[in-house]
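Archive transcription. Copying these from loose printouts into the bound notebook so they stop getting lost. Printout 1 of 2:
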Amino acid sequence: MPRFPAAPFLAAFLLTGTIGAAQAQEEAESPEYPVTEFAEGAKSAAVTVGNLTAGVSQALRPEIDPNLEVPILDVMVDGKTVLTVPGVGSGYDFVAAEARIAEIDPDNAAQEVYFSSYSGGAHCCNTVIIAEAVGDRWVGVPIGEFDGDGNYLEDIDGDGLAQIVTADQRFLYTFDCYACSAAPLTMTTVRAGKAVDISTDPRFLKAHRDWLAQIEEGVDPAQRWTSAGFLAGWVATKIRVGEGPDAWQQLSANWDAAADPGEEVCVTGGDLDACAKKNRAVLSFPARLKLFLEQSGYAS
C-alpha cells in the first residue's frame, strides 16, 4: 500500500487518528530505502549500497549562503567521488538534509541517489535533487521544492521502481488558505538525466482513486460546496481518475453563483501585478478554476 502525502486540510484527521492509523499501516508496509543517519553532534553521514555511497556533509558556500554552512551531497562509486551537489541552507547551524539510495531509473546500470535539503519557512520547502548515472557520467537532476517531511519516495504501483510522490504544490494558496486547500497527487521520475512527470500514467489510477477517497473523507460536509480550496483539488483529482465531466456537473449544480463576486485574474497566466490590462478579467470561481486547470495541464 502506498504512503500518500497528507493534503493540508486533512491535518486534523491525521492528528486525531481518523486517517492516521491507516496511514501508519501503509507506511509500515512501504519499502525501505537506505538513508543517511546522523549521529548526535555529527556534521556528516553516509549510506552505502553495494559500490554506491551517498554522503551528506556541510560546508560554507558563500554563493548560496554567506553566513551559514549548507548541506553537500557527495556521490561515490567504488570510493571515488563522481558527483558533488550542494543543497539549500536551512538557516540553522546544523545539516537539514538526507540522502537515500533507490532504484528509480531502470534504464541505467546504477541505482539513484535521492537528495533532499530543507530551506526553512512556513509550509516550505524541501528541495529535491536526484543524482543518477547517464552514460559514463553522473548528473544531478532538479525535481522541485515541496512541502512536507522531505521523504517523497514511493514505489506506488509495486513494480520495484520508486517515484517521487507528492501533492501538486500549485494548488496550495491559489484558491484559499494553505490549511483550506486540497491538491491532487503528482508522480515524478527521472529518465536519462531529465525529470519526467508521469502522473497520468494508467498504472497510477488506483493511487489517484485512493487519494480522491481520502480528500472526500477529509472535507467538512458543510463546507464541501463553499470551499474553493477543497473544490479545486477535488475537481483536479476527479479529472485524474476520468471523472472530470461529473465533477464539473456537480460543481455547476452546487456552487452558489449569486454569492460569487468574482476575482480579477491574468487570463494569460502569471502574476496579476505584471499583467497587461487587456489580459485582465474578473472571473467567477468556476471560470478561474477552469482556466487554472487548463494552464496547469489538467484536461477534463
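Printout 2 of 2:
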Amino acid sequence: MAPLFIGSAVALVTPFDKDGKINYSLFKKLIEFQIANNTDAVVICGTTGEGSTLTVDERLSLFQTAVDTVRGRVPVICGTGSNSTSFSVEFAKKAEKYDVDAHLIVTPYYNKTSQKGLISHYYTIAEQLQKPVIVYNVPSRTGMNVEPDTYKALAQHENIVAVKEADTNISKLIKSLVLCDGKLDFYVGNDDLISVAMSLGCKGVISVLSNVLPAYTHEMTLAGIDGNSRKCAKMQKNIMSLIECMFLDINPIMVKEIMNQMGVGVGTCRMPLGKCDEKYLEIVKAEIKKLSESNRQPQL
C-alpha cells in the first residue's frame, strides 16, 4: 500500500470566533491556504485542533467541512481516537460517512493500558473500520508510550498503516523502524526533529509549524526525504527559534497567538487552555518580525 502522504501534513488549528464558536468560514480559508502552499495532507481535530474540547457533533461537522473543502486534493486525516475502545470505533464509523481518508487514533490516556492492551485496542478498532488507521503516540500527554515490539505487532494488521511518533527518543525510533521493516510508515510529530527523522527514513511530519509556514515546512521535509539532509538541516536551524516559540506554552496556545498577531484571527483556545501568557507576547512579536524581514511569511 502506498503511503497516505509523503511530506508535510498540517496539524490544523480550529479557529473560534469571539464567542468561542467554530469559525467555519475561516476554517475553510485555512485549508485553502494550506493547499495553495503545498501542504501534503490536513489533520483535523488532533491535539493542535483542540479535538478534546470539541463536542462530537462539532468534530463531525469539521470533518465534513474539511472533506467538502479539500475535494480530494490532499488526504483528510481525522482525529477519532479516545481512551475508550468502543467509543473510538463508533465515532470513527460516523466519521467514515463523510469519506475521510484516514483516522488518527491516539493511545489511551488516563486509564492507559499495557502494551498487550494497546495491541488489542488498535486491532479491535482497525478491524471494524474501512479507512486506514494511524497510531498516534504522544507520551508527554497520555502518560504511556508505544514500545518498538508493539509497533512490530501492530504492523501485522493490514489496516494499521502508519504512526505519528511524538516521542523524542531517537534510539527508540530507529529500533521501531528496523523492527517494522517498512510495514508501517512513520511520521514524526515534533517539528524540531524533522531533519533527523527524515534522514532515518520517516515519510514526513504532522506539523504545528505548517500552520504558519506551510510551503517552508513542505520544502524542508521533502529535502530530507529526497536525501538532501544538509539543506533540510540548514532550513531547520534557520527556523528553530520559531519552533521553540511555538512550544513555550501548551500547544496550541502559542501557534494560535502567533497566527492572531499575524492578523489571521483564529481566536484563543477553549478552556482549560485559554489565552497566551503575557510574558510570551514580546517573544512572539520578535519572531513575527523575523519572519517579515526574511520574506518567509506567506499571506492568508
